[in-house]
Amino acid sequence: MKSRLLIAAAMLAATCMTAPAMAADLVIKIGTVVSGDHPENVGAREIERLIEERSGGDIDVRVFTDGQLGNQREMVEQLRSGSLEITWVTTGFFGSWEPVLGTLEIGYLFKDREHAFRAFDGELGEEVAAKVEKHGVELLGYFEAGMRHLTNSKRAVAGPADLQGLKIRTPRSTYHLRTLEMMGANATPMAFNELYTAMEQGVVDGQENPLSNIYNAKFSEVNDYLSLTGHLHLTHMVLYSEDLWKKVSPEHQKIIRQAVLDAAQVQRAKVAADDASLLVELEKEGMTVTRPDRDAFTKAVAPLRADAIEEFGEDAKRWIDMIDATRDIK
Q: What is the residue range of the signal peptide feature (predicted)?
């Protein structure tokens, strides 16, 4: 009798060990195009941690890095078709669907990162959300894409004259591209995941990105010169598929939205930490660093403000005025 009980207990224990874990009520996929240790994915992992912890395991979050789910445009379309839950793109990138958003990628519109936070965490952010949510997505919060600087393989850049003739890759965002053209470059739109090879093969001479992108993508291997132009501070919109959002319970919606807002603080802190440390690392890797005359570049791109107002009317004017009004608030 005793042996039978022992065998039964052993069988029960084995069954418990091999039985699959209870399935989560909701599975959320997050897709990004950057490497796993990039600040964007620090934010993604924080979203994952907070949602899973606060839902008590009812929600399973899975992060896919390095463009595993496609490039940015493909993932936005997956959101809109209801086959992906979360990704993020910059405001200007979404200009393909809502053109006025391109206004927010005019060069030297933001003084610094704190200025951008004040704008997007206030009325501007609310108006942007209203525009974006007409296109099959729910906007949950804002991550920092960062302050962008120039690199190239040809020469040091100290002012607009030094950019003449250089082919510089930009994202496919009209006012982002026009900013580089006004600064003096031959701007060339291209997907980020094509960029390293394009510079290696000489298809383009250089690019512009935050220091974290420059470092994590190993652009120092193909570009010798880094110019701290600080010409654009970009903001990522954290987007959820509208179709899939409607299927999420109100309780879970609250958990997800708050997790994004809380993760944004961690993600922004990582960007700031990288900006403080990566310049030294890039110099160690052999990049020649210049600090250009930003006033000259600012004057060169200034006409884009009037162009945006002429193209988009009152929305563009109001947004530019909002940004200027928050410039020097302490």
A: 1-23
